[in-house]
Amino acid sequence: MSYSKFKGKAAxxxxxxxxxxxxxxxxxxxxxxxxxxxxEHLFKSLKxxxxxxxxxxxxxxxxxxxxxxxxxxxRADMSYVYLQEFTTINNMYLKQLDxxxxxxxxxxxxLETCDVICMSGxxxxxxxxxxxxxxxxxxxxxxxxxxxxxxxxxxxxxxVSTSTHWAANFIGESDPQVMNFKxxxxxxxxxxxxxxxxxxxxxxxxxxxxVKGFALxxxxxxxxxxxxxxxxxxxxxxx
Length: 239
Known about the structure:
This protein is an alpha/beta fold. Helix content is about 30%, strand content about 20%. An eight-stranded mixed beta sheet has the order 1-10-9-2-6-5-3-4, with helices on both faces. Strands 7-8-11 form a three-stranded mixed beta sheet. The mean pLDDT is about 90.
């Protein structure tokens, strides 16, 4: 049973501090994808969407976090920043799956047997490099395409597109190396996380015409499930 029934909100500020309304935007062409793409972390109103994807309670579900967008200690820190509170209050298991530390056999077994796959923030180029070096790109894409829930935080949300214009030119933390890597190609839009309204003119200029994108503030997220696109909060649609 969820620990949130026994603990007050003050004990889990990261999860309960944001409760952005979720609303259906329209149809999405891929009916098998189950994806949550937040700017920073899983928050209260995203729990029902994850339950919808899993077909029931989050109790005892296994979550793996791929932390390779960060470096060194930042990898471990990100797993706690984004997921420790959420998995704790919902009685879930959390495992960090560092792609540089485990052999391919263990990586694939973990991805195949877990209930939810997560990717942390950092640099998109680091994430894609780690996926390719581990030799799991095709497997990872196939598993997600078949419908296993995927949660991508920040860089983890940026790497699933078919292009990486925003990642390469991200304001304050550009990632030019990302142009040397093919993104995962799971969705037909780009994501700009950590968005602030005053950045809108600059962010719009960074995305070529004809490429759809969504800019996400810390309290925003995109959700795709059962052939529908949902907004949590108020993502800014560009192009």
